[in-house]
């Protein structure tokens, strides 16, 4: 069996693959368009190089392993038509994102930025305001795969977790779940308001002035979902007026965040340039998804993990 | 029953006490030496104000509630002689310390100091080296109450934990435990080497050049125990020569860290001025210990939590 990768992996990763799957020939190309590809049963790709023309030539192709979370730009209709099995790495972002959220929460709580600033001045000062995460309350907007992973870690720290979604349906690692329209009643209880919501008609502009007014003055607001959840001007006002203590933003109405944005200069904002899902272990994780499925594939099992229905696109 | 506090608590904390214990009279003083104290059955103190003279006048005293972890400076012989029950808040530091350790680990892993520096320059740069904590390995020197709490949190993040103590006896939240004399064989496996060891004859100078040479070049060394675990010069050399990636130090051979220490200027060191156990919630936590015991005391139960045997001092 022949497998073609359209991205590089490390030597030790290839070695592990060849050891674990001695019957399989693994090949690599960066230029799918100019490669003879009729012999490959499996193509492992980030997705963007799969065109109708490629599919025409990939006459033996039976499984497309997409090492990314979204497939919306791929020729899904043709893939469906040809009966090609497609799987992705859905869930790969939850670990780095949840670690980022906890990193920011703990770093602020334990005053790490203050310690770093003192160190630069060679200043030994033990009078640093620090608190504990334990026994606080977090409201998680969007308790799906990523939100639940954040909830799981927060619960390990002894944090009460409240999930908030459209239906109010219960979610993993949430002590309770409420609906979007109950937001105003739960916001006053939250020490952390964390959004990982996608951009949909139900979430765009979901938060307005009244929501920030309802938050604790000591609350930390974290947006790791999409920037259109709240207008930047509303956020700037809430932060300037002390309606909340701090905001950590990984997403913005406009990205890159324009140089003239008032957010840059506020001292109670942390700007993360949409990198919370990035990870040096991405390829390693993607290969874990791949090899688990490759074992199944060799056994003739076509019920792969993270299978994508090309007609639906998810 | 009369209870005397020798430190202040907040109004809402006193209100909660008075509500929960309506039969008890709570009094407060900052000047035990000049206070009539013959009527108090219980004294709640940080410990340093309890002298033989105070004990002489505290003729009704039956329980000393010490809101600190150490009691070595108190007149233990007299306390034992008078049959006074003594309890402390052993374990109160484990939450803030474990949160500090995780804060530093996650902050480095998710490149928060880099993000903060970029923000100051109003720089939107997504090319930031970040990794994942998941699937790494941590070696915890001193897996007692604090070390095990660190281990519990690390395990929640999917980290393999190896405890290391004198006997090699198994410890909570450690996947395995080794003895001090096996250190050199486990150090090459650890991404994080975290010490919370006290200063004893077995731990002073425990780590020398060979231990740092045995660590991964990518390892992070964290000392949250006592500064005499390793000579500062050995640490400076290991950091300068790239034998380890980074050190986070909360304790030092000499504290405050002298201005002339080379540690201040190394860019792969984080200096925390012995504050990892500090917490804005300290009094709140101490009162939790106190009230749990006060319930027992009222019921005539003298088997208090965190009881101290004054003759032994722990």
Automatic annotation (TrEMBL), chains A, B:
<keyword id="KW-0560">Oxidoreductase</keyword>
<dbReference type="Pfam" id="PF02826">
    <property type="entry name" value="2-Hacid_dh_C"/>
</dbReference>
<feature type="domain" description="D-isomer specific 2-hydroxyacid dehydrogenase catalytic">
    <location>
        <begin position="8"/>
        <end position="301"/>
    </location>
</feature>
<feature type="domain" description="D-isomer specific 2-hydroxyacid dehydrogenase NAD-binding">
    <location>
        <begin position="103"/>
        <end position="276"/>
    </location>
</feature>
<dbReference type="InterPro" id="IPR006139">
    <property type="entry name" value="D-isomer_2_OHA_DH_cat_dom"/>
</dbReference>
<keyword id="KW-0520">NAD</keyword>
<dbReference type="InterPro" id="IPR006140">
    <property type="entry name" value="D-isomer_DH_NAD-bd"/>
</dbReference>
<protein>
    <submittedName>
        <fullName>D-2-hydroxyacid dehydrogenase</fullName>
    </submittedName>
</protein>
<dbReference type="Pfam" id="PF00389">
    <property type="entry name" value="2-Hacid_dh"/>
</dbReference>
<dbReference type="InterPro" id="IPR036291">
    <property type="entry name" value="NAD(P)-bd_dom_sf"/>
</dbReference>
<comment type="similarity">
    <text>Belongs to the D-isomer specific 2-hydroxyacid dehydrogenase family.</text>
</comment>
């Amino acid at each position: 069996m022949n497998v073609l990768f359209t991205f590089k992996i490390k030597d030790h990763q290839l070695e592990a693959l060849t050891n674990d799957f001695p019957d399989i020939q693994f090949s690599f190309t960066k230029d799918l368009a100019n490669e003879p590809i009729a012999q490959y049963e499996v193509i492992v790709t980030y997705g963007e190089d799969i065109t109708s023309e490629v599919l025409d030539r990939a006459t033996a192709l039976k499984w497309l392993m997409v090492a990314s979370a979204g497939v919306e730009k791929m020729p899904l209709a043709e893939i469906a038509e040809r009966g090609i099995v497609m799987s992705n790495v859905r869930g790969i972002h939850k670990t780095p994102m949840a670690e980022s959220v906890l990193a920011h929460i703990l770093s602020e709580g334990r005053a790490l930025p203050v310690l770093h600033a003192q160190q630069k001045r060679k200043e030994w000062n033990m009078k640093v305001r620090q608190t504990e995460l334990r026994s606080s309350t977090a409201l998680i907007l969007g308790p799906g795969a990523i939100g639940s992973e954040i909830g799981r870690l927060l619960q390990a720290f002894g944090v009460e977790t409240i999930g908030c979604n459209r239906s109010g349906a219960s979610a993993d690692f949430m002590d309770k779940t409420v609906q979007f329209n109950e937001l105003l009643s739960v916001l006053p209880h939250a020490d952390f308001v964390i959004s990982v919501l996608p951009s949909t008609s139900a979430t765009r502009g979901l938060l307005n002035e009244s929501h920030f007014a309802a938050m604790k003055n000591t609350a930390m607001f974290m947006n790791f979902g999409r920037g259109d959840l709240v207008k930047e001007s509303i956020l700037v006002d809430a932060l300037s007026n002390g309606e909340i203590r701090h905001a950590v933003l990984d997403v913005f109405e406009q990205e890159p965040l324009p140089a003239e944005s008032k957010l840059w200069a506020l001292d109670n904002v942390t700007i993360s340039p949409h990198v919370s899902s990035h990870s040096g272990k991405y390829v390693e994780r993607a290969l874990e998804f791949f090899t688990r499925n490759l074992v199944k594939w060799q056994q003739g099992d076509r019920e792969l993990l993270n299978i994508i229905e090309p007609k639906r696109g998810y």
